[in-house]
Amino acid sequence: MRDLATAFKERGEEVTVLAGSGGPLFDALKKRGVNYRLLKNMVHPINPFKDLAAYREIKDRLRELKPELVSTHSNKAGFLGRLAANKLGITVIHTSHGFLFGGRKQTLTCRFYRLMEKYAAARGDLVIAVAQSEFDLAAGLNVIPPQKMVVIHNGLPVSEISSFAKPEKEPTHLIMVARFVPPKDHGTLIRALGGLKELPWRLTLVGDGKGQAAAEKLVNVSAITDRVDFVGLRDDIEELLSTASIFVLSSLREGFPISILEAMRAGLPVVASRVGGIPEAVVEGETGFLFEPGDELSLRSRLAELIANPALCLQMGQAGQKRFQDKFTLDQMVEQTASIYKKLVNHNTIT
């Protein structure tokens, strides 16, 4: 959202970001000269009283700003923002970075999220899915009609050459960037590496979360404590990736993870689980390897193959970097998004 807002401002558009938390986001927007407003009642957990107040707050800000188009991101903001814009007769597009009902068992919670998204989508003008897998999921479950969706993959700015990795360097340096939460499944990666003690490697885990203590315990039990670094949240991801040899993501479910694009941009081979939109980014055997989620043995085998073959790491890293430059840059995403915005605003203005 930050990069998209900045890109549209640079195109001469008047842009204002409404968000429920300031901090680094607002600092970055201020530095880039993008207008922003704090939504005081927008909080992360579901809270009926706060959520109703946030809905009213969004409507008040939209009445004040009188935008031609509202673009919503994230799940709660996407729900409340679409309802508020629809109530005011404003064109509204929602970008889903991963449907909450994706990858979940058919529980009451899953059905609740499906009903919520179906209700909101019916009141919005269009939904942008960041991966074909997300499009197929929503259409297949009859949550959103296919004609009300388009696919626009995430994109990132192109890096300077100084940020590129040298994946052929030895010993092998693996890196995973993800919060310590159950869906990221750090355990499968740790157990896989626990069986590769005879090979030369080191692992850096970037992120925080309630599951970090359990991951640290598993590292200790696996007797690889001296090879694993927990570095917490970092704002120098590009620099960290430039020192690595292989990027790993062992998630049980994903939408279309930015972290993989960051790794490809840096020139790293990617070893990741075959979930969500990951196969749309990673080409099996060409830019990296894919394994079934939770398949410790397959992950171990793929990692062993790359650790033993630095030349293959370089080959795959270069192929991944070219694929990023051909398909997943910020400029490409902005062009596609701008085209959709323009068509929808013009159509709604005419009709």
Q: How much of the polypeptide forms β-strand, as a percent range?
A: 15-25%
Going across the biggest sheet, name each strand in turn: 9-8-7-10-11-12
What integer value in Å does the Rg equal? 21 Å
Helical content (DSSP H or I, runs of 4+): 40-55%
- Total strands: the figure is 12
Secondary-structure-based class equals alpha/beta
CATH topology of the largest domain: Rossmann fold
Question: Which CATH architecture of the largest domain?
Answer: 3-Layer(aba) Sandwich
How confident overall, as mean pLDDT?
95
Shape: globular
Overall number of structural domains: 2
Q: How is the main sheet built?
A: 6 strands, parallel
Poorly predicted parts? none
CATH superfamily of the largest domain: Glycogen Phosphorylase B
CATH class of the largest domain: Alpha Beta
Order of helices and strands: HEHEHEHEHEHEEHEHEHEHEHEHHH
N-end to C-end Cα span: 29 Å
Count helical runs.
Answer: 14
